[in-house]
Design goal:
This protein has 502 residues and is of the alpha+beta class. 30% of the residues lie in helices and 31% in strands. The strands form 6 sheets. A 6-stranded mixed sheet has the order 1-2-6-3-7-23. Strands 10, 12, 14, 15, 16 and 17 form a 6-stranded antiparallel sheet that branches. The chain has a 5-stranded antiparallel sheet with strand order 18-19-20-9-21, with helices on one face.
Length: 502
């Protein structure tokens, strides 16, 4: 028996479970793209698959709707694939293990991918079933979560519709009609490693809540990468540190919940002098005692500082050898390590400005979300967002200047436009009218700080009239992600009713 067989609407959750069986993290979408093509072929639907894996499927109008204007439904096929450290699922190869907890649908030890698997499930259920609708053009893009790469290159020539219902929202009863633009700024710091002797240690930042770097950036949760930089900088005041490895985060648009550094302690402060490994006065015990004392002090400070925002924060500090013995490792030397730590320590993050035009809306923010290191360089991926294009460009320029001062290269990728609010929107008017008729209350019309693909699609089809909707989800892009089952059904019922009226 399938895990979701007893959930309503059956056809939507059938396809959602099918999607969850296929690995589909960003950059790993070939299998899900090919599945969509097979789906279209089996139902003799007009379909297109491009070189990057974007898929368009078209179903002609049902009986009595041939004279109605076509409608585009749109979502993306990739998910932010994250898992708990103890989870044994390989998200490159394995499907998800689904859990039902009352009204909540979750995944065991991993993110769920409700963002945006539910858009696929809605779209496939519509194309598979015998529902009343105008011509449906279902557009499913790749790699939205890493810069909207699929939408950027999408060929829209097969599309006739000038009305778009985007299904990539996470709050029922909210009709999105505008969003911020964004980009990714990638820092690359080249380095060399040399053999050095010292005490090998590991420091990690753990226990943070994380979340979507657009939807939840205003909550001021801890950023593991930035906190790691802060901790390393504080340690560097009293200890000589050589970096062996750095790692943190899973995606630039997810607030990182974990970051770690493998380091070599090669010296420590003792009164007014610095004791070095190569000097006779160096004491392994004194060095380790100071290291542990500083980490414990910093752990207490962070717990107090983030008590109301991220109470689970924890600094875990351990020696790689339980005895604390001296080891010889290939590491980045002290001065170069200090330069890297200094850059991590000054990385800005969080909300930079709020909108004066729309109270409560974040205007400009950024999120260092990825920290990686290989044999040649340290790389940091930073998500930049703003509803003001000039502010976005100015922030990118500031980051480029920061990289220049640190001796790093700055690469800008995934630059996408914002989606400007349209005062006149016949589609939105019809959607509001239908919503009021069904639920006897008006939906909330708003803009958001997170990015959706409507902005890029409007650039390709300037007359496109767009609204974004979706069911209730929480904690997207994290291992605590959940999808409301009852909300999924209500939005489905609303979508079916809406298609009858369009």
């Amino acid at each position: 028996m399938r895990a979701l067989d007893n959930l309503e609407p059956k056809d939507v959750f059938y396809f959602f479970e099918e999607i969850c069986r296929i690995p589909h993290g960003s950059g790993n979408t070939k299998m899900i793209s090919d599945y969509l093509v097979r789906f279209a072929k089996e139902r003799n639907l007009e379909h297109y698959q491009d070189e990057v894996g974007n898929v368009i499927m078209i179903k002609e109008a049902s009986e009595g709707y041939s004279n109605h204007e076509a409608v585009m439904l749109q979502g993306h096929m990739d998910m932010v694939a994250v898992k708990k450290p103890e989870c044994r699922i390989d998200m490159e190869k394995d499907g998800l293990k689904l859990i039902i907890d009352g009204d909540r649908l979750m995944a065991d030890g991993t993110s769920l991918g409700g963002d945006d698997g539910i858009a696929l499930a809605y779209g496939l259920a519509l194309l598979d079933g015998a529902y009343a609708h105008p011509r449906i053009e279902l557009v499913i893009t790749v790699d939205e979560e890493v810069g909207m790469d699929g939408a950027r290159v999408l060929d829209v020539s097969p599309l006739k519709s000038r009305r778009l219902i985007n299904l990539d929202s996470e709050e029922e009863g909210i009709f999105l009609s505008g969003c911020a633009g964004g980009a990714r700024v990638n820092f690359h710091l080249s380095h060399e490693k040399k053999q050095r002797q010292g005490i090998a240690c590991e420091i990690s930042i753990e226990g943070l809540k994380g979340g979507h770097s657009g939807e939840e950036i205003h909550k001021e949760r801890g950023n593991a990468i930035c906190l790691l930089g802060r901790v390393l900088a504080k340690l560097s005041d009293k200890l000589d540190i050589c970096i062996e490895h750095l790692e943190g985060g899973v995606a630039d648009n997810a607030i990182p919940v974990f970051a770690k550094a493998n380091i070599l302690l090669t010296g420590y402060e003792n009164g007014n002098s610095r004791q070095k490994v190569m000097q006779g006065e160096f004491s392994q015990q004194e060095c380790l005692t100071l290291f542990k004392h500083l980490c414990e002090k910093l752990d207490r400070e962070l717990k107090q500082e983030l008590a109301e925002k991220d109470r689970g924060v924890c600094i875990c500090a351990n020696t790689m050898d339980s005895s604390g013995s001296m080891k010889e490792e290939k590491v980045i030397e002290e001065q170069e390590s200090k330069r890297i730590v200094s850059l991590l320590n000054i990385l800005p993050h969080g909300v930079l400005s709020m909108s004066a035009a729309m109270p409560g809306l974040v205007e400009t923010s950024l999120n260092p979300g990825l920290l990686r290191m290989d044999e040649r360089k340290v790389s940091i991926g930073i998500s930049v967002r703003s509803s003001i294009d000039s502010a976005k460009k100015a922030l990118i320029g500031q980051l480029q200047s920061m990289a220049c001062l640190a001796g790093a290269k700055a690469e800008v990728t995934g630059d996408y436009p914002g989606w400007a609010y349209r005062k006149e929107s016949p589609l939105r008017d019809k959607m509001i009218e239908t919503y009021i008729r069904l639920y006897h209350r008006a939906p909330e019309v708003k803009a958001i700080h997170a990015g959706v693909e409507c902005g890029l699609l409007v650039c390709k089809i300037p007359e496109l009239d767009c609204v974004s909707i979706g069911p209730d989800m929480k904690n997207i892009h994290t291992t605590e992600e959940e999808l409301s089952i009852s909300s999924t059904q209500r939005v489905w019922n609303y979508l079916l009713e809406l298609l009858k009226t369009l």
